[in-house]
Amino acid sequence: MRIKAKDIPENGISLSFQDSPSQWGMGGVGGDGPTIQGDISGTLKITKHNEREFFLWGEVSAETRLECSRCLKKYVQSLRCEVHADYIPEVTMPSEHEHELSRTDLNLYFYKGETVSLDEVVQNHLCLAIPMRPLCREDCRGLCPQCGRDLQDLNEDICFHTTESVDMRWSKLRDFITKK
Fold it and tell me: DSSP label at 10?
């Protein structure tokens, strides 16, 4: 989504949207990683700091298809994230020398010319909302470490094989404990 900087009034502009991921530059995402399912929706508000600097905030939501990190099943999870960003013209970027980023620099975005693109902000915030270790449900038992069967699908608590495996290096200690 793009907005012309001159079209943003002094008191700001509010945007409500429900668009396909391709309209936010997220089309064609696929493969084994997370994919956005359905539309991306949200409400955003843009206000002016001054004539050329803007502040964006709001909320964005989408549903994403993930793979559980324990049982490897695909599932759909709703994502909801707050969006905060400052936009400044690219010509006011700091010089080439190195400097340490402050906390406020992490939400700083640049725009060229007279058009402000909101795509990168929405993409970044949705990507950051994806859990690092997605779980299909909180009590997911995962896969059996012996045979690889899905423990969710088993009616019993254990697989048909013995679940106790002893490292041979510890066998003498086990014998010592059983003698007592």
Answer: T
| 3-class DSSP state of 113 | coil
Distances (CA, A) of 97 to 19, 83, 100, 111: 40, 29, 10, 21
Confidence of residue 6 (pLDDT cuts 50, 70, 90): confident
Structure-token pair, residue 128: 């950051």
DSSP tag of 143: B
For the cut 80, the answer to whether the pLDDT of residue 125 exceeds it is: yes
Residue ranges of domains in the chain: 2-129, 141-180
Residue pointed to by tokens 């793009």: 2
- Computed over every residue of the chain, the mean pLDDT equals 79
CA dihedral sign, ordered 121, 127, 131, 134: positive
- CA-nearest of 58, 53, 13 to 40 is 58
Confidence class of residue 59 from pLDDT cuts 50, 70 and 90?
A: very high
Q: What does the angle CA 63 – CA 69 – CA 71 come to, to the nearest 5 degrees?
A: 105
Question: In terms of DSSP H, where are the helices of the chain?
Answer: 119-129, 171-179
Q: What size, in residues, is the chain?
A: 180
pLDDT per residue as tens digits for the range 75-93? 999 999 999 888 888 775 5
Pairwise CA distance, residues 75 & 67, whole Å? 6
CA 2 to chain centre: 22
